[in-house]
Amino acid sequence: MDAYPQYISRFLPVCQPLPxxxxxxFAILFAWSIIWKGAALWRAAxxxxxxxFVALILVNTVGILEILYIYVFAKKRPETGASGSIIK
Length: 88
What we know:
Blueprint: H1 6-9, H2 12-15, H3 20-46, H4 50-58, H5 64-73
Helix pairs in contact: 3-4, 3-5
């Protein structure tokens, strides 16, 4: 006799722990995503882009949307010198 009822033991293969490579892959993807999400959220907040900020928080694309936002869609801020004046 099984240790679990039939309706539970049917789903146990799905619930098995991840193999060693899966844990490392998950950890790397998690770190990658958090770094890019933090940078994109910071940029959206500094640019006062509320809709982008909300979209970046709600949508998880493992860094793809965040990278696109930073390099394609974000407003470019003018560079300032040491005295705070805008450099042209």
